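Inverse folding, one chain.
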């Protein structure tokens, strides 16, 4: 089960990033975190930008509503999603959660 945290600004999603994968995709839930495979390398913020684009597209929110709040330089990140409730977010992630 995905461990979401609701804040005054939105919902924080714990994410496990797997950079330099063969393709970009949401993988599965791993230890309460959403595993995301990214084609981008972890260089000059490329993986972070790819993560934001992928989550925004999958969740149907603008890119400015998705922000990395913890772990900017780590594989384990906290990503804030604005404009959705925890239930809406789970529904939009679908089979991953």
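Residues assigned per position:
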């Amino acid at each position: 089960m995905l461990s979401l945290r609701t804040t005054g600004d939105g919902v924080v999603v714990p994410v496990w990033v797997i950079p330099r994968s063969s393709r970009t995709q949401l993988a599965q839930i791993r230890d309460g975190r959403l595993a995301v495979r990214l084609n981008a390398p972890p260089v000059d913020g490329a993986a972070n930008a790819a993560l934001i684009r992928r989550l925004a597209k999958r969740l149907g929110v603008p890119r400015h509503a998705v922000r990395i709040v913890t772990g900017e330089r780590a594989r384990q990140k906290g990503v804030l999603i604005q404009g959705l409730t925890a239930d809406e977010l789970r529904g939009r992630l679908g089979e991953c959660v």
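The helical segments are 46-59, 86-93. The longest helix spans residues 46-59.
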